[in-house]
Amino acid sequence: YPQQHAPQAQLGKLNLSTIEAMIGSYTKVLFVRDPFQRLISAYMQSMGSSSSFSSFVQEVLDIGLRDASTAWKPLVSLCLPCLVQYDYVLMFGFLRQELGHLLPRAGLPADIRLPEFSDSQVLWTYSWLSEQLFSELSLQQKLQLSQFYRWDLSAFHFPHSLLSG
């Protein structure tokens, strides 16, 4: 985008037409992850502040959307997929496959060296861990989480999410 807009400029300080032109000039990539897996990751990073996963989930539900951490806040409220037209949406757990499609389209050389991804191992581990932690939740908590993440579950395809059941 033209030099007059420094990269550190906050979008909120620019007028709407400038924001639209700036955003339109970029290739926009959105990385998404099953909301329940994001919640597990946030729990694992904060182990010690909550005695159990169920208590952590209850804290998240009690806090609600207004004061939610970006670690577990619904993606739709963070990335605004209805307003920003993303060029690519990549799903966590399929990064090797998805990046293989994205990189040539982004004009990067075919022989670029990517880090090793252990997608299948990551998927299996999260699947097992998700089932274990999900079983700790009450029916009410499961329903409340499904409601809390309803827009993410509608906007993105998470075919194996325990919350979409």
From TrEMBL:
Instruction: Report the EC code(s) recorded for this entry.
Output: 2.8.2.-
List the subcellular locations: Golgi apparatus membrane
Recorded hits in InterPro entries, A to Z, give: Carb_sulfotrans_8-10, Sulfotransferase
- Topology within the bilayer: Single-pass type II membrane protein
List this protein's GO terms for biological process.
carbohydrate biosynthetic process; dermatan sulfate proteoglycan metabolic process
Gene Ontology cellular component annotations, sorted alphabetically: Golgi membrane
One annotated GO molecular function is:
sulfotransferase activity
Enzyme kind, highest EC tier: transferase
Which keywords fit this entry according to its UniProt record? Carbohydrate metabolism, Glycoprotein, Golgi apparatus, Membrane, Signal-anchor, Transferase, Transmembrane, Transmembrane helix
In the record, the note on similarity to other proteins reads: Belongs to the sulfotransferase 2 family.
Name of protein: Carbohydrate sulfotransferase
Organism, as annotated:
Alectura lathami (Australian brush turkey)
